[in-house]
Amino acid sequence: MPVSERDEEFLAKCATIIGVESIAPHDDFFGVGGDSLDAAEISEMLAAETGREVGMETVLGSPTFADMLASLRG
After folding, report:
1. Residue 8 Cα distances to 30, 36, 37, angstroms
2. For position 1, what pLDDT does the model report?
3. Distance separating the N- and C-terminal Cα atoms of the chain
4. Following DSSP, what letter does each residue of 8-67 receive, concatenated?
5. Cα separation, 43 vs 37, whole angstroms
6. At residue 69, what are phi and psi to the nearest 5 degrees?
7. pLDDT category, 37, cuts 50, 70, 90?
8. What gap in Å lies between CA 20 and CA 26, rounded to an integer?
9. For 7, 13, 29, 33, which has the most beta carbons within 10 A of its beta carbon?
10. 32, 68 contact by CB (below 8 A)
């Protein structure tokens, strides 16, 4: 599945928040070093970008970043 430019930007921002060089869509949040503080920051970033409330459960409950993006679209 091709990754859109918007998704690439999201992944790059998540990588910066977590402190890794890059993240692929099918990487696991915890597998790349994410923790609850990162989840809170990503939730805040998503809320600011989408204009709607995005709870930490969206981040923590998604096995991969692709799943996280899919839940935001659904």
Report:
1. 19, 22, 22
2. 55
3. 17
4. HHHHHHHHHHHT-S---TT-BTTTTT--HHHHHHHHHHHHHHHSS---HHHHHT-SBHHH
5. 10
6. -65, -40
7. very high
8. 15
9. 29
10. no
As a whole-number percent, the residues of the chain with pLDDT over 90 amount to: 73
Rounded to a whole number of angstroms, the CA Rg of the chain reads: 11
- Tokens 């790059």 sit on residue: 12
Contact (Cβ atoms closer than 8 angstroms) between residue 15 and residue 22? yes
**Using an 8 Å Cβ cutoff, are 59 and 18 in contact?**
no
Write the pLDDT tens digit of every residue in 19-32.
999 999 999 999 99
Is residue 46 within 8 A of residue 54, CB to CB? The reply is yes
Phi, psi of 17 (to 5 degrees): -60, -45
pTM: 0.89
